[in-house]
Amino acid sequence: MATEPKALAVPKKASRLRYDLSQIRISKTVNELADMGKDVRNKVPFAKLAKFIPVHRDVVQGIQHVEQSLIKELLPMRHARMAESPFAFFRGTDELMAYDLSKQTSTDIPVVIAGDAHIGNFGFYASPERKLLFDLNDFDESTIGSWDWDVRRLLVSIILAGEMIDLDNDDVEKTMRNAVQTYQQIMVECFDDNTALERYYFSTEVESFLQAQAEGASLPKLWRKIKDNAPQRDSEQVVRKFTTLDTRGRLVFKENAPRTVHVSEKRFKEISTHLRSYMQTVKPDVAVLLSQFHVSDIVRHSVGVGSFGTRCYLVLLTAIDGSHLVLQIKEALPTRRFQGFDVTTKFSQEGPDNGERIVTCQQILQRASDPFLGFYHNDNTGRSFYVRQFRDMKESMDIKKMDADDFDTYARICALLLARGQAQSPTGAIVRGYVGQKKKLASALIDWAQAYSKQVHNDYDAFTAAIKDKTLAVEGADDSDE
Fold it and tell me: Is the pTM of this model over 0.85?
């Protein structure tokens, strides 16, 4: 529902991130840290990582507990998306795997992790310099945690995505092995061959990927098409696709209930007010830029699989020159792994705002981040949100269109980026010492991933059966004004 325009005011003071990073800061040399990693390997040999420890939990009850805080009317669509395939189910239930991982043998070497590093959570987006980048692109579950949690989730996703595109078992195992060995190689190169600044300045520009062939293999054919099409995906393209003129001639978002609906006037005012708080968390130049815009329209707009059902909004901003900017606001839940499943680890933190957590971890893991990335907290409801630009040259690889070679190369690139991201944590040097370049690590992690993939299939079967016999109750929250 559009109301009279009100410009975003320049914030009076900047906010400071309070997410505690002390667990990844350490005053030792790279060699000393690598030696620490070798000591960990003596205590937790690769063979211990290979054993999957079965975990007993009620998957349906767990999903219902998670969904208690989600929007009730969106849950049937969420369930339909998750039921499409075991891979889709896996994408929508990261809290299950996080719970199971908390019961497994782990190295407990802390780095900033994505928390949900499955193979579908890498994609294209624009740098502030308008270069097309490819990197990790989902950070809702990001936190400080053990490096192997990300690698294990990547490997299990390779199995499930490989099944989805009908790859044979040998091809899938080869892809997993190549992914682990790439991770090891890059982690070793990061700390043996690169300085701290070189690790920091590493480029994920797509053009560099297109020019540099991975061990002589061609990059997926889809990359060139995406590179050519991505620049057209900007705010003005979003405006053309998602908006229309209302009866008063004002530009407003199109509705597509229940996925896309206009917010109430009360929520419109509330979000507009909170956007001014958000401006305290972006750089001064971005805050000044945003001061030239006013809020024209806001809709609740649900996206994805795992985050479908959370409170997500699109905000249409109009500048003093008539141009537009579309921001996406996403609810920043406490990492959903902590809802209904007690997986508190030695790295867990109490107190930091979850929007701050997501923004902090994203800026560490990505080589360059959206300049509009920021956050705010609603003190009235206790909910946290983070803000980013919507669809700014953003695109994902279509895994369903990949052949075995494309899939293998794509998985290697994802493993490369995962290693590069984790190497931004100084404690990544401990990981480097632990993983080395021994092939036994790949065999151990593959054995674990193959065993765990069977658990995912069992969970998926229980989930789809609960939908069929209607024992999975739709018990989410009402989205009325609080």
Answer: yes
